Every structure is written in structure tokens, then in C-alpha cells.
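Hey, quick one: can you model this chain's 3D structure?
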Amino acid sequence: MMSKDVVIAGRILLKRPAYTLTAVLTVALGVGASTAIFSVTNAVLLRPLPYKDPKQLVIAGMDLRKRNVHDLPFSNADFIDLREGTKAFFSDMAGVFTGRMVVPREDGTPEQVSYGVVTTNFFDVVGGKIRLGRDFTAQDGVPQPKAPVNDAGAAAAPGRLPTIAILSYEYFRRRYGGNSAAIGRNMTIPGQPGPLIAGVLAPGFRLYFPPDADVEPAPDIWIANRLDYDSANRKEFSIRPVARLKEGASLQSAQGAADGVAAQARQNFSIDQTAGYYISMEPMQKHLVAQVRPAVLALMGSVIFLLLIACANVANLLLVGASLRQQEFSVRAAMGANRWRLISPILIEAALLSAVGTVAGLGLAWAGIAELRVLAPANLPRLDDIRIDSVVLVYSALAGLVSATIFGIMPAWRASQPSLMNVLRGISRTSGLASGAFLRSFVVMVEVALSFVLLIGSGLMFRSFLKLQSINPGFDPHNLMTFQLQGAGLDKPAPEQRAAFVRLIAERLRSIPGAESVTASFPFPLTGEFSPIRWGPEDAGRDPNRFQATDFQIVLPGYFETMRTPLLAGRTFTDEDNLPGRSGVIIDQDLAGKAFPGQSAIGKHILVRVRTPEAERVEIIGVVGHQRVTSLAVAGREQIYFTDAFVGSGRIQSWAMRTGSNAASYENQVRATIKAIDPQLLVTKMETAESVVHEAQAGQRFSLLLIATFAIIAASLTGVGLYGVISTSVRQRTSEIGVRMAMGAERSDILRLIVLQGLRLSAVGIAIGLIGSIFLGRVISALLVGVKPTDATTFVAMTVGFLAISALASWLPARRASILDPARALREQ
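Sure thing. Here's the predicted structure for all 829 residues.
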């Protein structure tokens, strides 16, 4: 019997192709969009990390609370203290830090590779598998022997232990062609003994840290860290600890032990006390997604709203269909049909529409995921893992099932309550429409409310994006080419050699026709590579509690002129400032305002700790505008600038060239110039500064694009739903309209009557949506820049815009009603 009902329902749907196609497309849009975004949610927030027992993995971060600095890496000594002090709760703890370097390929040409330096237990802790060769052993991490001192007081060079390396599978295939004969050999690295290759990792191994942790996600070369436990430095921070909880141990207990370690450090070391040193312990997956979680959840919430709007739209279609079949259902009831026989045609019809729409939605989701990978910001973790897997398929099937239930339940309920008097009265089709009028109106009001919430969200995001684009990054990105230089040539042994080499590069680049100025820095604005140093007023030497954190930058003379960062007081660096022994610094306006409020900072002194264990006194020679260092959306910390010579010359990596025209057109000339200087120098990350700024907007642009797309689809579906309800109402009130026109009503009166009906429905929905929008604003407040969640301009604009959509959706059927022939309308009834 069920199969027969399915066949009948299929035939009914095929006889109404426009109705069926509209319903299927609506379901496909809702299910497809929600499936695509759920694939992102699943990959980023839900899918376990590809490690052994990933829920047991914990990340430790160092916080300097008195300086408002969080999630710093650890020094060697602090790492050792943490590991030893938490042994009762962790089965093991490992450490990692990463970087980039240039090594020659087998043919001698330079190649940039990423490396990871790890404690020898690292792969055992996280569950990394070795494909070829062996894992690290404890012997690989034995500290290098100390140099003995001879009678003259000079250190004699002892025999050094070899550096042991494990290669990633991808790098092993790229460099050695997968030849296992490479295992047991030394790599070739200029200027130093190459590491001994002990093994090769299994394919696909990656590190999972937040983008601002500055950790390479897939190092090519893994090197065993020979930590010197006896002379570990507490002032050089590099290690990211990863620990594995013991069976039965809780994170709260481990955090308590870590609190004890930090408290002991604050008691023993004054610098930890004055900085407010604390340790935070967090599950690895939670730590990875903490920054993107609000955006992903906001997108998931938006797309669920869209799915509900799609369901409401199809429910209205089915309600109209059920109303037109009231006489059929009344006859069935009169002939003894039970409740199931009355509702089954509607439920089966809803199930068929949902099934076909879900399959079509999966196709849309598959295409949408490909686009999401292109549009998603680079800092979205696990971007490559976004795909349709078994979990996503289950979600899609459940979304289709829930959709069928939502949009099928109300029409089925209406069908289960036929009026036998309708059979005796012989009601017309248009009279039957009246029986579901309230339900259809209610569904449209729900649609309007949900759609309005989405529109408010997209409006707030749009206003926020406009604010973001108007933010001054602190430099002029137009006609500015940026790139990085790496290679052994920049690692000359003497500072004066490095300084001469940097000057040579700058002179050659300036000689390029069209180049207006050239400079270099480390790091570069909006790259996210900044780290804090200590600064304080002159009396901070007596009161260490007065030291605070600031970001620093190493620059060449001419940096501010090339970047067009405004000079507000004093002067910028000259070549004379870029000589050893000079102590002049430049600070930004934020640091000047904090250090010397209401005073001129020029000629005054502050204490900084950059090149010596203890703070040293430096003179402020200039004040410049503030540059955004890690994000356009966040102003960031204050900044202090040093010359390259201040820190020993050759520390700069990022270069910038101001040109007279399109900066991108100079790429080949820059590469050729660098190659002529030194073929072993490698040019990387070459892009215009405009591209750097564009990338800094990627996160907000991604969220805006998706939420705005969902809002436009939702508003369109709601407009269609409102049009359907008003059209049905016009058909239901045909005789009333005929009587009004026969009694002398004008066309404008009929238009006003029908349009006002639609606007009333919308007004109620908007009123409900306003309440929901207030809660939405709180949810997405973390995504907004310079805009309040209750921004009046957005609320007014979206209200007016939605009422305009409602007026249009109501005007179309109202116009048709206004041109009815009164006599014909009365005859049809």
C-alpha cells in the first residue's frame, strides 16, 4: 500500500511541474547551503585532530598578565620546569618550534624549506608515524658538550655531536625522489654540518596551531632539539609545549599543577613576578579553533535560519495544495478513511520533495565547498580537510528528514481535520483556501522574522567591512612592492660584513628604473610576525613593576619615508644612526602618549631590553604614526623602532620598494637584480602591499560574503512566500473584491487593501525579528569592527529595505486583483 501511495504522490507532483520544481529548488538551496557550511564546521570544530587519542592532547601557553601578553612560547628553562612540575598528570610532554631556511637542492639551486625543532619524544607524544628509518631516540637529544677553557682563558672547540633529522614524506619525495639510500646520509647545508637523516615521516603529518602562534604547519625537516638543561635561558622564548594527559587525569588538575609551577617561578624570579607570569593549559583542538569559533558558529547559525526559511516556504506551498484538496479529504473522511489515510498523501509528498531536494542540495554543497576553499581566509585552520565525508552525509540526510517533518507537519495536520459539511455544501476551490489562511499567514510571519534577523546580520557585517576598509594601516600600500630575502649571503660572520651586504642590496634595488625608494624591516606590518619586548620609564630600573610590553621593529634608514608613515615629531633615522653604538630609537604615537602624556617625547629616555640581559637606556629621536601590525581590525600594541645596526646588522628580512607606477610590474626586475647580486639568495613572499592589506581583510570579507548571500536568498524566499500568501488571499477574496468594485471601489483602493495586508504580515514578522536581531548582534559582536551590535543605521535601513521587498511582493498580486472584471469575478464564485 505504501509503495502505491508513493507512486500516486509522484504522479501528482509530476502533473504540477512548476509547483514541484519550486519546492525542490527551495529545499535544495536550504539543504545545500547548510551542508556546505556544516562541512566547514565539521572540519574546523568537530572532526578530531589526526593524532593518537587527540582528546588527551593539551597545549600550554605562557601568559604575562601584567603586560597583557598571552599565549607566548616558553623558554627552555620554563619548559623544563613545567614538564617536571606536572608529571603527576601528564604521561609525557614534548616541545616544538619552527622556522624557515634556505638550503640547496641536489642541483645546487636554492630552495626555501621549513623546519621543526622538537624534543626527541615529540612524535611519540602526538602519535606521528615513521614511514622509513627510525624515530628519534633519547641519545639524539643529548646536549652538546661544553667547551673546555684552556690556560689562556679561551674556549677550546670540543667534538660536536651530530644533528639528527627526520624528513617529511613530501620533502623526501621532492628532494630525494623517494630513494631510501638517503637515510643515514648527511644533508648538504652551506656553512654548517648538514644534519644526519635518521628517518622519514608518514605522509600528511601536520602541526595544528592557531595562525598567530607563528608555527609552520608542515615542516620539511624535523630536527632533534639538543636542549642544554644545565644552562637553559629564561629570557629566550621559542618552545611550544604539547602534553598528553594520563588516563584518569583531568585538565583541571593539570592546570592546578601548572599554576603551582608558575607561582614558584614568580617567587624565584623577579622578572616573572613583575610580568605576571602564568601558565594556561587548553585542549589542543580548542586552542586551535579559539579565534575562528565565533565566525564559524555565526555562519552555521545563519545557514540554519536559511534552512528554516526554506522549510517555511515549502510548508506554505503544501498548505495551499492541501487547502485546494479539502473537498477530496472531506470525501475520504466521509467514506471512512482513518487519520493516517488522510495525512499520508501529504507526508509522502513532503518526503518525496525533501528527498529529491536533498540530493540536489548535495550537488550544490559539493560545488559550494570548492568555492569555499577558494574564498576562505588562509588563517582558517584545517582548510584542506573541508570535504563531504560520512558525517556530512549523515547531516545532509538528517537535514532533509527534519525539513520534510517541518514543512509536512502543518499541511498534514490540516488534512487530518476535514469538514464533512464541505461535501454537503459543495464548496468551491477558492472557498477551500480560506480554511488554511491563518496557518499560511503565520508561516510567512515566521519567514519574515527569520529573514529579517539574517538581513540585520548581513547589514552589520557590511557596515563593519566598510569601517575596516576605511582604517588607516599606518602606511600607504599603493605602488609598494614587498618581498622577503633569505640565504646564506645574509648570514655572514661579522656584523660589518652583513651591513655592507645589506647596503649593496639596497643600492642595486634603488638603481632599478622606476624605483623611488627602497627599505627593509623585520618584521613587516600586517604579517602577524610581531613579538613583544619590555620597555619602561627611566625609574623602572628601581621599580620593575613599571615595565610594560611593546612590539618592536628593526628597520633601515628611509623606512618611514618609503612606507609613507607620517612623522609627527622629531626626525627619522639617518645613515649615521645605523652605526654600531648608537642608541637612538623612534616610537609611535601610542607609546609616546602612554610614556609621556601631555609632553613631548623627543630627547627623553626610556629603558628597553633587546640586546642585553638587562634593560638599557635609549633616547627617543622621533615619533611616528601607529602601524597596524597583526590585524586591521585590532589596533594592537604600541611600537618601538630600532636601526638594523642596533641589533648587530643583517637581522632584516622583509623588503619594500616604492615605485612610480604599478608595483606588480617590477617583479621580474627585482628577481633579476637579486640573482645578479647572489644566485643563492632566494626571493620569497613577493606581493604588493595592497595585496597584504587585502589579505588582512580576508576573514571579515569571507563572513560578510556568506552571511550576505544567505540573507539575499532568505529575503528572496520570503518575498516569494509572501507573494504566494497574498496571491492565495486574492483568489480567496475574489468575490469580495468583485463586490467592492461593483460598489464603486477604485483600483487604487483595491491596491491599497491588498498591499496593506502584506505589509501588516511583514510588520508583525519584523517586530519578532527585531527581538531576535538583538540576540544575534551579541553573538556576532566579536566579528564587528567599529560597529555596535545595535547600530541604529543598520536596523533602520534593513527595516525600510525589507518593507520595500514586502510591498513589491504584495503589489504584484494586488495589481492583478485591481484589474479584475467585477461581473466575471462574481460569476466565478
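One thing worth noting: The first strand starts at residue 57 and ends at 64.
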